[in-house]
Each structure stands twice: as C-alpha cells, then as structure tokens.
Amino acid sequence: MNNLINKTATMQALVLWDLGKFEVREVPKPQVGSHEILLRSSAVGVCGSDFHIFSGESNFNKDKYGQPIPLLQQPQILGHEIVGVVEEVGVEVQDLSVGDRVVLDQGLNCLSKKGKSLYEYCLTGDSHQCEIYQEYGITGLPGAFAEYLTVPAVNAIKINSDLESVHAVLTEPLGCMIHSSDVVAKTRTRYKIGAEELERRVQSILILGAGPGGLLFTQYLRNILGYEGLILVSEPNARKRELVKSFGADVIDPQEVNIVEAVREKTNGRLVEYVIDACGNGLIFKSIPSLIRKQATFLMYGYGHGGVDLSVLNNLQFIETTLVCATGGSGKFNDQGRSLTYSQALRALEEKQIDVSSLITHRYHSLETIPQAFIHDHKLSDYIKGVMVL
Fold first, then answer.
1. d(CA 369, CA 347)
2. Which of 172, 232, 258, 355 is the most buried (most CB within 10 A)?
3. Residue 340 lies inside a defined structural domain of this protein
4. Which residue range is the domain that position 79 belongs to?
5. How far is the C-alpha of 329 from the C-alpha of 150, rounded, in Å?
6. SS3 109
7. pTM higher than the cut 0.85
C-alpha cells in the first residue's frame, strides 16, 4: 500500500490519543497511490468495537510481538463501518470513477496489497484472517472518523442504487452476520436450519441481546435464510424488545423473568438447538447449559465475556455443545477481487430485505460531536446505533 503523504495538504480527523480521550486534530491528508482511491467520508457507523477500544477493554493495534501499542504512544483514528464518495482515483484504477459512492471492505488482505500469490487464508475464502491482515480504524490504520481516507480500489464496493449512505453503513455489520451464519452452516453440527430430518432440524433459536447484532441476526434468519421456527430474544431494554418483536421474534425480559424458566415454557420444555450470543455478557455462560439441548450449537459473536472463568465450559463440554467462534466478514473474493460477503450484504440492503432505518437512532453531523456517542448517548435507553453523517 502506498503510504506517501502530501505534506502541503492537511485534513481534520478525530484522534483517540488516550483511553477515553478524543481530540479533533489537523493531520496530513493522505495522497492516493496508483491502485488506490481517495475517499471523502460521508457516513461512518459507531461500532461496539469502537467502544471497546475507547474504554481500553480492547486494543487491536499490536506490535510485531503481538503486544498492544498504547494510545499515548500511537494514537488512533477509529471508524471502520465506512461509506464514502470517490474524490480521486489512482492511475491504475479502471473500475471506479470520481463521484462514485462506495462502501468499504475495511480489511487489507493479499489482493489489497497486490501480493504475487495468496496466503492460505485468502486462498480458502477467509481473507479476514489473512497472514498480513490489517484493518482501517481497528488495527492502527487510520479509520474514517476523518475527512478523507485512501484505500485500495479493490476494497471499495460501488453502490448502484439510491440507498442512503447512512443506511449503507450497515453493510459491514450485516456482512458479519452473513459470515457468522456461513461459518455455522459449514460447521459439523447435529442441528441445522432447514434440515429434512426433524431430529436434526433447528426448531428454536435463542438470541442473547437485541443491539444492532441481535436485530440484524433476527432479520437475516427470517428474511434471507427463510427460517420459520421460533426465535427467542433476551433483551432488558423495552424499546429494543419491541423492535426485535416487530422483526418476528418472541421476547424475554431477563430483568423480569427467569430466562431458563421462560425458555422452557416457550419451547414446551424442549429447550433450544441454537444459541447466538450477540451481547458479549460472560455471566450468561453460567445459564447456557440450562437453555440448550444436548449437542446444540452455540455461536459466539458478541465480545467481552468477562466475569467468569473457564469452569463455565465444563457443563457445555459434558453435553457436547458445538462452540462456534466467528468474527469479521470479508470472506471470499469475486472475479474483481472484491469481498463477496460485503457485496451480498450491500445487495440485501439495496433490495430492502433488511430494515436498517429503525436501528439508526443517533446521527452526528461533525467530527466534534461524535464523542457524545462514547461519553453519553450510548447509555440512553433509546440508543441503538449511532452514525456520523457528513
């Protein structure tokens, strides 16, 4: 990747320079390389991963020994759910033009870096685990909480519709749902969605949490996978419960009822064959064995999982639970070298198979206002998803 900097030009960026401390700074404006495009940020989502980095729960910017690099040593520009407008194209770029609106596959892989050959993960369609993987706004590469960003053209997917940029931001999160579901589908599990044999068919699904992840998972199961069985969603927030209910789920308020008793009642004592953790609450691990059937599938999607030790896995092991860990969404490439997963997610949004308008509750129209999401707004009862819209 070309890292040349135009030293005469600058731009504004929101810099996370220490834990919990943002500052809008003037930084060098990046110069476009031959295979790159210059994007003007138009809409950028605020993700749970951003909150984890902001608070210090996570730091994915590692040195060559795998140790986190402190923010005071290397400040970061966050923002990896990216929609932008092409401002400039490199001399070798043929399939994008100035003025095109694009969503970004934010992960750099072998094709992004014009490698002469592909490493094993890119060869097998797991480009988000590439040996040389880097990610804008996550692993130390500057993200899109800034005026401009340069990216390899192959990482940009053109929006060929009137889909609003603020809605197109959800391409990346939806891509993560698609990837996670694909990982489960490819895993050898006892229970499958749509299996012909009743004894191997998923009849009930429990989703833990109705944040953006849980809301997207519910719609993906109903509207794209065509799942017609019972979907239970455990969520303490009343607004989120009503929203996920409108997407076809039965809801449980874990603050009002015992979740184990509620699941037993709603499944007529059968329990569930498939659990999706979309909240990252480690304490729920203690209850999982009482919620699922033997040889059920447990998808770990949410991050966090503090407050418990490894002993919680004993009961899961005893009933032969299939534990599936999934993250990211870049996946396989199309014949242009672009992410098939994100392309599929974008098409689903363009074709209105997934409703994202109701998920976006807070909009931020300047770099200066984005810290409100991190400091205050995410604590509000009506907050679901924040998006910077410039």
1. 31
2. 172
3. no
4. 5-170+356-389
5. 21
6. coil
7. yes
